[in-house]
Amino acid sequence: MIEAQLHVKRADFTLNVHLQLAGHGITALFGPSGCGKTTCLRAIAGLERAQGRVMVNGQIWQDDATQQWLPTHQRALGYVFQEASLFPHLGTRANLEYGLKRTPVARRKVALEQAVELLGLSHLMDRSVQTLSGGERQRVAIARALATSPQLLLMDEPLSALDAARKAEVLPYLERLQRSLEIPVLYVSHSQDEVARLAHHVVLLQAGSVVTQGSTASTMAQRDHPMGPAADAASLVQGHITAYDAQDHLSTVTFEGGELFISGASQRTTGEPVRLRVLARDVSVALQSPTCSSILNRLSARITALREDSPGHAMLTLQAGNTTLLARVSARSVRELNLHEGLSVVAQIKSVALLD
């Protein structure tokens, strides 16, 4: 369990948050620039002095009520910054060994070889870090943080300095980390794609306060607190690959609500868990299943909420089994189809993005 009750007051900004998070998995601190994500992370690390209390898996790092305070170097944490911040005069191996050497032998739980394997660095061990690409440097920085066997891994927008190609290179390694290690991760980001792909839990911050928090799927689907502009509103579907059609190159994903056909998953094995991102603008509704349509993905659903989204548009919250979907439709469609809460409809999904 991670508990952080933090208060920071500045002339133009106040952070006031109380977090109680599971001691495993990836929790994303998400929100617009200036909302307090990095301040929160730095306060948990002890890099910035906040008032309050920080406790990680039963160990108190800060408690102002009892005047307890551990400086950063005594907190069992790993910190990955936006820039890799490697030692330029050291090679890859020496950078990793630096992280290992600052960890007492009795507390070492992540072997250096394990960190190297998880981040795919074996072929880079004898290289100078100055010859590495941006993605390779960031993978070394993550491995160095892991080599300290942290009780908590803090990641402050670790992909923001990378271009799209380098991000695509690093993301699979981050997914591997969250599947392979028990170390809880606090991941700061303002990228909805990264959060949907990596996080189990989301804390949505705005102007220094927690607006909402919960599982990634439930938080993304909250119509009152969209994680991004209305045009980018999306829902998260979590399921398993259950079949593959080699003729049409389509995989079947079964989830709590039905089945979806997706492309681009030919290398996936049957039974493998996957996450799918469904944009609200790619979901339409019909009162009955069309007999002639090019849209393959159709789900029986019920409208559980309806609100005006923007002039001329409405956002529908749909329930398909235990899965929540969002659909952005025109106000005219709402009126002509007489759409209302409680109505059973057919959700037609034009496009599905495979996230992991």
Automatic annotation (TrEMBL):
Pfam families: ABC_tran (PF00005), TOBE (PF03459). The keyword Lipoprotein does not apply. The keyword Iron-sulfur does not apply. This is Molybdenum ABC transporter ATP-binding protein. Residues 292-356 form the Mop domain. Residues 2-232 form the ABC transporter domain. It comes from Comamonas avium. It comes from the Bacteria. Keywords: ATP-binding, Cell inner membrane, Cell membrane, Membrane, Molybdenum, Nucleotide-binding, Translocase, Transport. GO terms for molecular function: ATP binding.
